Structure formats: C-alpha cells, structure tokens
C-alpha cells in the first residue's frame, strides 16, 4: 500500500497525500531493519517494516542508532550495518518520512560502552588531554556520516540523551551541567565545521534531582538545557515498566517530564516531542489506547517514538507484531494519534 505520511515542515506537520492519519507522528526504532523474529541484517531478506506489517503504512518517523560508528565499525551496537542505515535513511526521506538518530557512543576514556559510568568527564572535555582528541574523532565520525546522507528533510539528531539518568557516561552522576553543556557545544562546533544541518533534540529522562514538584522538574530541565542556539526540539524519554501495576508510576513520571519539557519548550520557543517511550513486550493490556494515547493528546508533541522490536530477544519489542493480541489496540491508537 502506498505511504500515507506526515512530516514536520517549518515546525508544523503538513499532511501529504490526504492521509487520514492524525496530527502526531509515530516513530519506531530500526523499523525497517528487523522485527520480532525477522531481520534484514544479513542482507538477503525481502524489504519489510514492522509498522507496515500491521498497519499497511510505512512509518512517519524511523529511528536509527549510531553507536559504534565512532570506532569506525561497519555495524552499530545492535548489528545494523551503517550502509543499510544510510540507504534506509534515504528511502525514508524519499517517501516523505522523517529520520531521527540517537547515539549510544562508546566511552572515549575507558573504551567501555555508553553504559560505562566509571570515569567522569574532566579529562574528556579538557582540550589538553589525549582523550579529548578521541572524543573529537568520535564526534567527527558521526558528523561525517550524517553529512554524507543527503536528505530533503533535515535529520532529527538526538545526542547525549537521557542525561538526567545515571546509566550513561554523559549522565548526571558523572557529568555536571557545565560539562554537559560543553559536550553539546563541542558536538555542535564539529557539526558546523562539516556544515551538517540537523534538527537538534535535547531529551532527558527522569527528573529527580530536585523536589518532586513541577518546579523541581523544570529547574533540572533548565539547568542541563544546552542553550537556545543548540536545540530545536525539547523532549523526554520515559518508559512504562511492568503491566497494569506500573501505570501510576509511568503516568506520574511521564506527566512530570512532559510538563517540564512543554514548559521549557514554550519559554524557549522550541518544538516538543515525546522522544522515547514504550512498554516492553506490551505487558499492560490496551497500553496504546488506554495509557499512551491520552498522554500524547495532553501535550503539543510533534511526534512520539517507541523503541525497537528486537529479532533476537523474545520479549524485547515495543509495538505488536502480526497476530499479537495487542495489534487491534495498536491500530486504533495509530489512527487516533
Ligand atoms: C536499549 C536496548 C539494547 C540496545 C540499545 C541501543 O534500550 O534496546 O538492546 O542495544 O537500546 O539500541
């Protein structure tokens, strides 16, 4: 079936092809690379899309992750070949869809993964230290990759995400607000050198540094916000853990974070998005229509993005696959979003 899509243009989603799709775009990570129990990663499988499998439409937005490109690897941390990623970015753009890139970057000091929080940022950001050169090389490789992909719509680039958590080496426990700003400024500086035009997204996760009030959440958002000239879209990442018993906790965090993000976006005249969410294995029945849909309709978000359907981890999926019990609920959500 032909693509019905929407895309962001001058801060607005413009409806193309008379889609009956609603006004918030829906994104899915690695959507056309693999899905639950299938993959195109070895290069010999027919074209396929998780979203298309269940809706008959290609996704408005596809997310890819650059983790591994900084080392010059041919595949990312989830085995997606960068050449396949490049081709799919172009194909998505040609369909009129949008692309968002995240980056689970390796640690420039320890050589560990993005989740290595053993060292803090002092040396990485000290331009006289050798690790600074490593960080510059890492960012340069990302800039070169993005520069080489010529798209009509700008790529939505979401670096240094979930910084308010304590799980990444750019996270709050090992990277101060000042260092976090420096990291963004360096990234932007290198992108500018290569004349890479992207839409920059700032997307913290939980906001627990200050008191559990709207003011506390906004204060933390503001403190780590890299600055108006570095950001186009303000968003947040927030996951629902478990089944029904997790609803209250999820809604509490999601409202807290989306409210802070929307307030900051409004103050700074930026766009708003729900940059990552999901309920792994959709353990909560009717999660899409009962939990996510009302949430999305309460904030002026441009898009909502959910994580990947892994081909090799039985329970690591975020949208239903064909004949999954939640398929009908998802389709209803998809058309009402
Ligand atoms: C995580 C999981 C991991 C994956 C990483 C980067 O949330 O999906 O399996 O390696 O994202 O995509």
Overall description:
It is globular and about 55 Å long. The protein is built from 8 helices and 12 strands. With 337 residues, it is an alpha/beta fold. It has helices spanning 50-55, 82-94, 130-148, 177-193, 214-224, 247-268, 287-297, 327-336; strands at residues 5-9, 12-16, 25-29, 34-35, 38-39, 61-65, 98-102, 155-158, 198-202, 233-240, 271-279, 303-306. The protein has an 8-stranded parallel β-barrel. The protein has a two-stranded antiparallel sheet with strand order 1-2. The two termini are 20 Å apart. A hairpin with a 2-residue loop joins strand 1 (5-9) and strand 2. Bound molecules: beta-D-mannopyranose. Beta-D-mannopyranose is lined by residues 65, 77-78, 104, 307-308.
Task: Describe what is shown at a glance.
This protein is an alpha/beta fold.
